[in-house]
Amino acid sequence: MDKLTEVLKYKFGYDSFREGQKEIIEQVIAGQDVVAILPTGMGKSLLYQLPGYLMEGSIVIVSPLLSLMQDQVEQLKILGEKRVVAINSFLSFEQKEKVFRNLSSYKFIFTSPEMLQNDRFNHALSAIRIAYIVADEAHCISQWGFDFRPDYLRIAKWLQQFRQTNVLALTATATSKVVEDIKTTLLMREPFEYIHSLDRPAIAYEAVEVKDAKEKLAWIIGRVTSTNGPGILYTQSRKKTEMYAHELQKRGIRVAYYHAKMEQDDRILVQQQFQQGQLEWICATNAFGMGIHKDNIRQIIHDHIPTSIASYMQEVGRAARDGAQSIASLLFTATDVEQAFYVAMQDFPEEADIRLAYESNDISLQLPETTTRILDYWKEELKEQETIQLFQTIKQKKWAEILSLYTMLQNEVCIREQLLHYFDEELTNRPKYCCSKCSLPLQEILVERKQRSEQKEEMNWKIKLDELLLS
């Protein structure tokens, strides 16, 4: 047994690596920059955790969400790792100062792009040995950096201080353009690239055109109440998450809603209840999903056209991590295209906003917080006319992307084939249950799912009965 497999067995309890894992880990240990694209459920966390036990120094993991950080910290603690910390807004000033003073005692240091701009944190980091740096969910650099979190783009300047070590970028989906954004922002030097097929044969794709919101609601209620979960219902509106949850609760479904305006403790509770099986369905905005360790999600439903194909693939990819048959259903109307574009653009600055930003030193009272944050960054990087041109280009690309997804749903070409083509991949093996354009005998899939649920319930009762008889 080689050293890597030995650590895999001793620390993580696995006998063998999944496809691609060992090659990536070997490159990280060798000091090589790495871009690794693996679908959800392929064990991306192992790729940054295992090398840490074979190298000196701390690992800095840049993560996009507080809930994701907390979940990753808890997963490591379950494995017996105590030298782990998440440095974020959950910590008080006193707690942060204590962590900073003892930073070298932590093996795994999770933080956000925003915290990388903290001088006190950087001073503490400069005093310790860093084994390597990890950009988790690295697609956010391209997908969010230009949209509403410019601190993702500031990572490039931050890395200039700590570029003596290598960088590992991990994500589930990325086009060639996104990969280039990742490599540029992370200052990568001829990185090793591992790109796994994005095809998920166990997920069937269903596109359903409806007349209006009333028909959408009726369809959703019918599907959720007549089939088994677990499942996630994605919507763009916080009010709709609550409305859907209320309607389904009235019909006896174990469901809760989730959106970004909820208290953090409430969000964590809902996430835990879903992961532990106490809830069968979640009605959520796209704030829900990253870091969800739930292998048996059977259904993903969208009541809208997502703002990008990459976002859609990220969200449906949360189903079927256990490899069992699942289905991703997308409901849409012709007017959803304009709504998707509005949602995508709502925080983007208009030309008048940009001119105001360049004329004024303080625009925080005149423009929304997100818009202000975006313009504060670009004022440092570009001239006024260049910024205007940049956002005109971004808007055109956003519109084209939304229209591409709408076209995929409307035409008669295989959905799976089109999704893979978007990521420069060809469909080589069409699964039995492919998509609503090919072959999708819904009753057959749903009956199979119901039978599995009944078999599982019967097995659980047998176990409970055996326990009672033996006690």
TrEMBL record:
GO terms for molecular function: 3'-5' DNA helicase activity; ATP binding; four-way junction helicase activity; hydrolase activity; nucleic acid binding. CDD domains: DEXHc_RecQ. Residues 216-371 form the Helicase C-terminal domain. InterPro entries: DEAD/DEAH_box_helicase_dom, DNA_helicase_ATP-dep_RecQ, Helicase_ATP-bd, Helicase_C-like, P-loop_NTPase. SUPFAM superfamilies: P-loop containing nucleoside triphosphate hydrolases (SSF52540). Residues 25-192 form the Helicase ATP-binding domain. GO terms for cellular component: bacterial nucleoid; cytoplasm; replisome. It holds the Pfam family DEAD. One of its GO terms (biological process) is DNA recombination. Keywords: ATP-binding, Helicase, Hydrolase, Nucleotide-binding. NCBIfam families: recQ_fam (TIGR00614). This is ATP-dependent DNA helicase RecQ. It comes from Psychrobacillus lasiicapitis. The lineage of its organism: Bacteria, Bacillati, Bacillota, Bacilli, Bacillales.
